[in-house]
Each structure stands twice: as structure tokens, then as C-alpha cells.
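sry for the spam today, last one i promise. C-alpha cells for design, 112 residues
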């Protein structure tokens, strides 16, 4: 099993969710986060005053899938979330040692 953690731009969430559902992803966790990378934030003007925005809003997706499906999920997120502009996000893939469905006690692949 693999844990895929992806950060994407907020306006891409629904498009990515639909694409992942289309390839058979049955669930994901979504968190609103703030961060910075190459962008290093930016400046904005609000009511005539300029101020620095050091952290940019992002969406973090966490998805656990079977190892055989991980590459397809990564490729789907990459192609769907890409705008070609700075700040499109990152994708990380980690190994998952164990999974348990709390309601039924099912474990590992059965728990997904």
C-alpha cells in the first residue's frame, strides 16, 4: 500500500477529485493548508495599504491505495492539477505498513 500526499491549488480540487474518482479511487482526506515554496509568497494591496502574504493557500490531499495503483494516481493528479505556473504543488509517495478499518476491523487492502 502507498500513501500519496499531494499539495495542489485550491481551485483545482474538484477537477482532481472527479479525475481520481474516475480511475477508481474510493476515498481521500482533504485539508486546507498554507505554505510556500518557490513562490515565497507575494505582496497584495488592500484598502490602499501594501502587505506581504508569506503563506499561500493550498489544498493537501492524502490518499492510500494499493501499490499497483499508485503510479496511475500520481499521474492523474499531476496531469489534472497542472496549470504550468509556479505553485502547482508537489506529490509525495510513502509506504504504508498497516491499515485498519475501525468499523469492521478489516486490515490492509481490505480496509481501503
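last one done:
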Amino acid at each position: 500500500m502507498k500513501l500519496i500526499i499531494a499539495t495542489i491549488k485550491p481551485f483545482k480540487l474538484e477537477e482532481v477529485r472527479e479525475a481520481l474518482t474516475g480511475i477508481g479511487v474510493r476515498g481521500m482526506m482533504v485539508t486546507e493548508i498554507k505554505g510556500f515554496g518557490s513562490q515565497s509568497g507575494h505582496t497584495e494591496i488592500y484598502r490602499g495599504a501594501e502587505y506581504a502574504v508569506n503563506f499561500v493557500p493550498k489544498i493537501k490531499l492524502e490518499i492510500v491505495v494499493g501499490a499497483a495503483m499508485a503510479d496511475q494516481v500520481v499521474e492523474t493528479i499531476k496531469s489534472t492539477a497542472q496549470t504550468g505556473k509556479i505553485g502547482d504543488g508537489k506529490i509525495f509517495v510513502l509506504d504504508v505498513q498497516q491499515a485498519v478499518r475501525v468499523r469492521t476491523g478489516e486490515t490492509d487492502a481490505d480496509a481501503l
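Residues 2 and 95 are 5 Å apart (CA to CA). ok im logging off now
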